[in-house]
Amino acid sequence: MTSTPFAATVSRNPAAKTPEQRDAILADPGFGNHFTDHMFLAEWTPDTGWANGRVVPYGPLSIDPATAVLHYAQEIFEGLKAYVHADGSVWLFRPEANAARLQRSAHRLALPELPTDWFLGSVTALVDADRDWVPSGGEKSLYLRPFMFASEVFLGVRPSQHVTYSVIASPAGAYFKGGVKPVSIWLSSQYSRAGTGGTGAAKCGGNYAASLLPQQEGMEHGCEQVVFLDSTEHTWIEELGGMNLYFVHSDGSIVTPTLSGSILEGITRDSIIQVARDLGHEVVERRVSIQEWREGVADGSITEVFACGTAAVITPVGTLKWDGGEVTSGDGEAGKVTSDIRSALIDIQYGRAEDRHGWLTRVS
Ligand SMILES: *Cc1c(COP(=O)(O)O)cnc(C)c1O
Fold first, then answer.
1. CA of 1 to the centre of ligand 1 (A)
2. Among 108, 203, 237, which is best to mutate for testing ligand 1, by the most ligand atoms less than 8 A from CB?
3. Which domain holds residue 216?
4. Choosing a second label site near 87 at 20 to 30 A (CA), which of 105, 131, 155, 314?
5. Are 18 and 150 members of one domain?
6. Is the distance from CB of 134 to CB of 119 less than 8 angstroms?
7. What distance in Å separates the CA atoms of residue 153 and residue 160, rounded to the nearest whole number?
8. Do 77 and 144 contact (CB within 8 A), yes or no?
């Protein structure tokens, strides 16, 4: 059955945090540590379509041990942020792109697609209920986490006939506290994040589960992040565990690995293509080999490397390490092109620069 248009009831949290408790959290929220007073919930069945939209007090979900997601990982998610502008208004950055990606992820994981009006309605309703939790000043934001999972109580292997959709919200501090610092990257030679025909282009929890062991290996080698290559030839750069990659060349052109089907289509990645072009850079999407990264940094044809995603926006990449060597781009600071693109994007998100591409949606 097709879903009815978005509608939601709101039950206020009688045990909401006091303004003092909230202010203490918002002073130094970190990332993913604290959650707001409310959450959004809705359910889908083949008979009802998406229904029962509601904003309710934040709290635990009660899950039967035989709930399908716990066994077969039929689960997808999104991540986007709400930003306060100088006049106190609250805005989302390209939320319809997140809605479309959640639909693509749902398709790949055999979950029901959530209509765009439900996606936008749910995140807006939650931001509205938790308006006081959107932090202002200094690159702070309210991180929104929509997610969907198989909630049928059933151990057979087939798409779930009962699905739950939820949105939770978590205040986020500036990703880089002491200024933007380059991260070091471990080249995983043994593991891939995703394979041809697999779920790499879907934003599903299972991809992250598969990235944790190589991530641990990277940390044992003193690196903060891991870069994954294609699973067939082990030659072509795909992305980090949760961020896309960019290479700045000495002629000012910028290259990012072309979407291969196993790379997650980052909305930050897509926005950077436009912002970099607006700044006068040539932007090329093509295959990039790991050899090109190593040799390009060594011979100076690659001058800057950066990673991008909603959480950090843009992270400069310093050292690439592998079993037997390493190369370092830059001098331990963010490069100029990296910094300029980062500022240009953040200025749009915080309303300090003109929204030339119609990327912002006001929610409060
Ligand atoms: C979410 C995600 C990204 C970044 O996507 P954004 O839309 O820019 O936040 C990149 N890679 C993976 C694997 C991701 O899950």
1. 31
2. 203
3. 183-349
4. 314
5. yes
6. no
7. 9
8. no
Residue 191 lies in a domain: yes
200 lines ligand 1 (CB under 6 A): no
CATH classification at residue 59:
3.30.470.10
> Coil, helix or strand for 221?
coil
pLDDT one-digit tens code per residue, 240-255: 999 999 999 999 999 9
How many percent of the chain have pLDDT more than 70?
99
265: exposed, middle or buried (Cβ count in 10 Å: 0-12, 13-18, 19+): middle
Per-residue pLDDT band at 138 (split at 50, 70, 90): confident
Q: Which amino acid is at 291?
A: Q
Q: What angle do CA 269, 222, 204 make, to 5 degrees?
A: 40
Candidates 81, 140, 203, 321; catalytic one? 203
Q: How far is the CA of 228 from the centre of ligand 1 (A)?
A: 14
User: Can you tell me the mean pLDDT for 310-329?
Assistant: 94
Please spell the DSSP secondary structure of 339-359, one letter per residue.
Answer: HHHHHHHHHHHTTSS--TT--
Domains contained in the chain, number: 2
Count Cβ neighbours within 10 Å for each residue of 33-43 and write b for 16 or more, e otherwise.
Answer: ebbbbbbbbbb
Could you list the beta-strand ranges (E) of 277-346: 283-286, 302-309, 313-322, 325-328
Q: How far is the centre of ligand 1, averaged over its atoms, from the C-alpha of 243 (Å)?
A: 5
- Ligand 1 contact via 342 beta carbon (within 6 Å): no
pLDDT of 1 reads 66
Mutate to test the pocket of ligand 1, among 77, 264, 272, 273 (most ligand atoms within 8 A of CB): 264
Residue of 97, 74, 105 whose CA lies nearest to 264: 105
pLDDT digits (tens, 9 = 90+) for 260-273: 899 999 999 999 99
Domain end residue (candidates: 147, 172, 197): 172
Residue 208 sits in a domain whose CATH number is 3.20.10.10
C-beta of 166 in contact with ligand 1 (< 6 A): no
CA 80 to chain centre: 7
**Ligand 1 geometric centre to CA of 242 (Å):** 5
